[in-house]
Amino acid sequence: MISALVTASKFFALLSSFVTIGSLLALAFLVLDKKGRLSTSGLKIRSIVSVSALFWFFSSLLNILFTLSNILDQPLSAILDPTVLRSFLFQISLGQYLFFQTLIALFVAISSRVITSSGYTAILLLISLIAVSAPVFQSHSASSGSHALAIGSLFIHVIALSFWVGGVIALALLNEADRKVSLPRFSEIALWAAIAVVISGVLNASARLNFAAAWSTSYAYVVILKVVITIVLLFFGYKHRNYLAAKPSVNWGAMTRLISVEAGIMIFVTALGSWLSSNQPPPRGGEEPFNAALAVAGIKMPDAPTFKRILFAYDPDILMIGLLILAVALYIQGVVVLTRRGDKWPIGRTISFALGISAIDFATSGGLGVYAHFAFSWHMVAHMVLGMIAPIGIVLGAPITLALRTLPQSRDGEELGIRGLLISALHSRYSRIITNPVVALAIFDGSLFALYFTSLFGGMMQSHQGHLFMNIHFILAGILFFHVIVGVDPNPRKVPHLVRIVILFAAMSIHAFFSVALMSTTTLIDGGYFKSLQRPWALDLLANQQAGGAIGWAMGEIPILIALVATFIQWMRDDSHEAKRIDRNTERMAALGQPDELAQYNLYLNSLDKKDRETRQ
Ligand code: HEM
């Protein structure tokens, strides 16, 4: 009985979170806004958000109680004891994640009542996505054999479902005018989300199930039923695209009926998914005997590193791969849009972006990423690649410029739209603060000390999400720093070349200081993480940690030196461009028989001086 209540509350929590996210998506990106403010119909969608988020809050709360009652095999009255509840919510990871999600649902329910701009709606959308995916890290997928594959694929499954299922239900709830405006754009998003749902669902099923041994269990039957219904849903999606392609004579009546049926089927499949996630899959069989490395790092202990192993080992970090695929797909889409328009995009930028992405993949899923889990020295090499080498490739790929040139323009001349949102985010106060070179340097180098000289590093290495968060932080901090120093994308503030050079020298010195401090450590800074892996090679952990400090120094200074040279070159080029521009202007003015720029400026100063004297007389 109680397990049925767990499934039911999970289903309502998931469904209401999908509706919340779908409606926020509609509000932020699909329906028309008025110069960044919500329109009158937008205000009605806002009420859908707050009602569904309130449902999300209550069903998550019930899910916490039923889950705890199920785990402890105690009646609800027993688990309502404050001490039992408190220890579940604050000390057990599953409880912490569920509680986090519940609090965010309440926050979204309250704050959505007062939002008036599409920018803040987009921020609420992001927060809701984090909340809906948080419990995935503690779901039973997390304890199955292929740990990283199971978590990563379920994470992508849930995010993609939020867009696809949530978007379709939100469309069904919109008024006709808003639905007509939203559909073409949603159709593009839905295609990507549906592909992600199918791939992640299949990957997750393959990580969880040994079909040869378990195909006749109810778990496998439900998976098969989901696959069949998903094929029907994909057919519906195909019909949508066909209807839309029949512009201008789109059959809106048929389209609306199709959306309602599709939403109904999706709700049913969501119920199946909730059942799957609340029931243990049959054992895969042939499970490996206990392995410390697998239990702690989620990857089997590799043999001692060799050049060949570092180069060719591969253990897919599905979450990171999902993010990289998304980034590459968006970049390619941008280049295709430009090329179709007949515009040119320098090939060097595309190559640079591709190299940056490949470096990230190598340092997360490739051999470097694998060994980074097992030895501090390799972790440091991966850190340098993620924080200092890959970001240079990414910023020289000019992704923001590409986005600004290709994102859709305002649809009615009045809406801010996606491109407008990006521009206002770039010009925002927040953006001006973080692109201040001193702030960028503080984030870039300050995080080294915050991570390695506190207990943070040990804590983050212990968990998959901590490791992922750390890697993403390295990449983003590096992108921010190198964007300010050598970036080709527009920056909200112009940083003089001299300041850039000073900042680079400062980064170099701080980096050297950090590395020397690390090389002189006499205790381990990993909170016992590397010891717990029981690695049979590189047995002196302290020597390996000190070697990590030396590697960090050597590898870290090279990209900074390259950036220094690049900044000098940019500076000289800018100066010679400016000199040429003044020369050209002087010649043009001389040809027209008029004074050149400098002479004009002097005339202007003389006129000011004359006026000044006249007023004093
Ligand atoms: C090829 C198609 C699909 C496959 C193979 C598939 C497979 C899976 C698997 C294996 C899980 C993991 C369950 C667990 O944790 O044990 C899952 C979760 C789930 N699936 Fe699917 N799925 C597919 C499509 C869909 C579709 C179309 C929907 C909804 C419209 C859906 C909704 C869900 C939901 C709601 C969950 C639970 C997520 C959670 O734990 O938070 N799935 N799916």
TrEMBL record:
Q: Which InterPro entries match?
A: Caa3_assmbl_CtaG-rel (IPR019108), CopC/D (IPR032694), Cu-R_CopD_dom (IPR008457)
Membrane topology note: Multi-pass membrane protein
UniProt KW Transmembrane helix keyword: yes
Q: Where in the cell is it found?
A: Cell membrane
GO CC terms of this entry: plasma membrane
* Membrane-spanning intervals of the chain: 12-33, 45-68, 88-110, 117-137, 149-174, 186-207, 219-238, 258-276, 318-339, 351-374, 380-404, 438-461, 467-486, 498-530, 550-571
Q: Which GO terms describe its biological process?
A: copper ion transport
Domain annotation Copper resistance protein D: ranges: 183-276
Keywords linked to the UniProt accession:
Cell membrane, Membrane, Transmembrane, Transmembrane helix
Protein name as catalogued: Unannotated protein
